[in-house]
Amino acid sequence: MSEGMISIKKAVPIIVITWVLSLVTTLALVYVAPSIFPPLNTANISDTAIVADKIEDGAIITTKLADGTVTSAKILDGTITATDLADGSIVTLKIANGAVTAAKIADGAVTSAKVADSAIITVKLANESVTTEKIADGNVTTSKIDDDAIVTVKLADGAVTSAKILDGTITVADLADNAVTSVKISNGAVTTTKIANYAVTDIKLAAGAIPHNETYSGTTDTTSSTTFDDISDTSVDITLNRNSTLIITFSAMTWLSGSGTYDIYWRPMVNSTQAYPDSSYVIITKSTDYGSYSYTFYLPDVEAGKYTVKMQWRVFQVTTTASVTWRSLIVTALPA
Fold first, then answer.
1. How far is it, in rounded angstroms, from Cα 120 to Cα 99?
2. Looking at the predicted structure, is the pLDDT value of residue 288 above 80?
3. For a designed S-S bond to 299, which of 7, 247, 275, 287 qualifies (C-beta 3.0 to 4.6 A apart)?
4. What band does 206 get if pLDDT is binned at 50, 70 and 90?
């Protein structure tokens, strides 16, 4: 037998033994070792056994942290950034009073709904910050306007109406020269005391302002009546607008003829009332010569109305004839 064959025969037993030992070891590790040396788990680790040095950097991930285990003391001050905060996660209770400063509020972010009622006080408003469009129509009341604050330029033309002027407060100084025109004076408003002495001149009197009427005639009229008859062409009408005193002036060229006692009597009649002097014996003349004569009568306190004024005459005896020519009757009404 060769030397090579002997070497193989010697090696076989060694291989077999090695394989058997490996098998036994494997079986021991699978079936025996677990009962003698149990696996490393939570129960095999004592409390506080894992110190910081035993934990690899970055080894603790999110799933290894129990909910609520990271407390404020475990968070390094100033390390939570904006990206660490979920949207909408900062609620009212998490903001300290006074913590939101002006710089933290975005421009235009504070809307009307975010301002509490009555929260904006006077000192928060900048001078001249309340503009016209910020004031609601009709909101500026009397108490909001300072005394003497409304000056002339603030009044619109025509804005001050009669109702806004206190009765009796417009004085002479308030009226411009020549400001009071005729149409602004009420009828009957200018009384005697308002007219300066000597201020009413003749040109200020309207035609017919002093009621009057007159007539004249150059015809000849005669009478031998011993009772009063009308003298022809010596009658006028006059209208009075107020109680008046009538001034009646009669002038004529007259004379007597015939025989007997030469007397001519005159009298004026206002409707059916004789003017003063009311004697029936006002003798005008006793002469047979031509003569011009005049007499003035009057009747006071004649009420307003329309009147006829006429002259009448008579003689003392029927044997006497009275004649008249060129005569005039003037009636003037003066305020009573």
1. 19
2. yes
3. 275
4. confident
